[in-house]
Write a structure and sequence with these properties.
The chain is α/β, with parallel strands linked by helices. It has 15 helices and 13 strands.
Length: 327
């Protein structure tokens, strides 16, 4: 049974999670906020950044703060799908031989897929069913995953050696893609002080799995006005190059625009953002706050866009700016 909570409790729980994570992670407030919004909306997160910026540490800290079963999968070029989902093994009991399913590390509440783009596309795709249906099928037998279930993946920039691009179908199943940037000089000093001292900072438990499910349930109940839903729909349509409302950057550099999943991520992310701000209604600024994270991995650039190194964030910013003139 999912317990009921109030909007005030939702905000208190969210602030407690951020406070505990902040004991270990220096700065990166926007990254932490977007990861938390995605978790509370029931979605998966892809964090991208060069090695050494604390992506894995952030997810491990969340595993400590959220009282959930945590599992880590280190993706490597020789990783096989069975290493993720599990396999059937032959066991001998009392002279009787039978195949028995041995669950893989994906059978957890919070799964860290570390450096996901260092594995081959075949292995990356092993997560597709788990991320979308929250089930795993092995040898024609389907096994449900325990709720709540989240995949928090890290990846290195695609131009780095030894990486494979994620299939578009899998990218679309990530609720948010969050870019992790370098810390400021002041934050770097704090990082060095925390990580080179005698005592390592520790985060405590903030919420349980039941409370996470209750927060997710409340977020879905937040009302959204029709004009805000229409705003989201217009934003999604404007990312398609063949749309009359597409801004110049979209028409010139985008091959495919955002899918309906992008609209779902915008609305659910905006609902969570509103609750975290202490409001029980969705405003335009809530949608705008989550738009880059919800859409940056759902815009596929054409050859010209890739060749010129166009940023999808710039395209999203132009779409939002043009939309603001017509609201």
């Amino acid at each position: 049974m999912t317990e009921n909570i109030t909007p005030e409790q939702f905000r208190a729980y969210a602030e407690a999670i951020e406070a505990e994570v902040g004991k270990v992670i220096v700065g990166q407030r926007e990254v932490i906020r977007h990861v938390l919004v995605s978790i509370l909306a029931g979605g998966h997160v892809l964090l991208e950044g060069v090695p050494g910026l604390g992506k894995t540490m952030l997810i491990r800290t969340l595993g400590d703060v959220l009282d959930l079963k945590f599992s880590r999968i280190q993706f490597t070029p020789d990783l096989m799908p069975a290493d993720i989902v599990g396999t059937e093994i032959l066991v001998d009991e009392n002279g009787q031989r039978e195949f028995r399913f041995q669950p893989g590390p994906v059978f957890a509440n919070l799964v860290l897929a570390d450096e996901i783009n260092r594995a081959t596309p075949k292995t990356q795709s092993a997560l597709l069913e788990a991320m979308q249906e929250h089930t795993v099928t092995v040898a024609q037998q389907t096994y449900p995953l325990e709720q709540p279930f989240f995949v928090l993946a890290t990846q290195n920039p695609l131009e780095m050696e030894g990486t494979y691009p994620l299939p578009e179908a899998q990218l679309d199943r990530f609720f948010f893609k969050v870019d992790v940037d370098y810390p400021s000089p002041e934050e770097l000093v704090e990082i060095l002080d925390r990580t080179t001292g005698a005592a390592a900072p520790l985060a405590g438990k903030a919420v349980t799995g039941r409370e996470i499910l209750a927060m997710r349930s409340l977020a879905r109940q937040v009302p959204i006005a029709s004009h805000v839903s229409e705003y989201v729909a217009r934003l999604i349509v404007s990312t398609h190059p063949d749309s009359p409302s597409a801004p110049p950057l979209v028409q010139q550099y985008v091959r495919y625009g955002a899918s309906p999943r992008g609209g779902q991520a915008l609305i659910l992310g905006a609902k969570v953002t509103a609750l975290m701000a202490g409001r029980y209604n969705v405003a335009f600024e809530d949608v705008q706050a989550v738009a880059p994270a919800a859409l940056r991995h759902r815009l596929l650039l054409n050859f010209e866009g890739l060749a010129e190194g166009i940023s999808t964030d710039d395209i999203i910013a132009e779409a939002l700016e043009r939309l603001a003139l017509n609201v």
